[in-house]
Amino acid sequence: MSAEQETRAVRCLVAKVGLDGHDRGAHVIARAFRDAGFEVVYSGLHRAPEEIVQAAVQEDVDVLGISILSGAHNTLVPKVIEGLKEYDAFEDTLILVGGIIPDDDEDDLKELGVAEVFGPGTPMEETIEFIRNNLPERA
């Protein structure tokens, strides 16, 4: 963790991208992140990849957690990653995906730059610990 990250709370965007209408898990993880001392912004439902990118850049987040259950992860997550790269925000953002992701797709997402994929039932402490241990250094 950099000196700046030690003096300010870790900033997280919990994002619901696409047409997925189920957000209970996103609310649960957002609350767990807040309880862990993270600063959390929630995107709300039905956000386009471009909206997620804009929110991540404007909020200067350290962590982008994408919650997706619709099965459109192979289409939507790459668009978010491309957008972050366009704004030079990719290297400074730890990208996590939560949801029901097949193992083969999980590997593909990681090759694109997703740091980790968390499935249903992952203990909150595991996700929080992963974030604390893997935050990118901020410029």
UniProtKB/TrEMBL annotation:
Its cofactor is adenosylcob(III)alamin. It holds the Pfam family B12-binding. PROSITE patterns: B12_BINDING. Keywords: Cobalamin, Cobalt, Isomerase, Metal-binding. GO terms for molecular function: cobalamin binding; isomerase activity; metal ion binding. The keyword Lipoprotein does not apply. InterPro entries: Acid_CoA_mut_C, Cobalamin-bd, Cobalamin-bd_sf. Residues 9-138 form the B12-binding domain. Belongs to the methylamine corrinoid protein family. PANTHER family: METHYLMALONYL-COA MUTASE, LARGE SUBUNIT (PTHR48101:SF1), METHYLMALONYL-COA MUTASE, MITOCHONDRIAL-RELATED (PTHR48101). This is Methylmalonyl-CoA mutase. It comes from Halorubrum saccharovorum. The lineage of its organism: Archaea, Methanobacteriati, Methanobacteriota, Stenosarchaea group, Halobacteria.
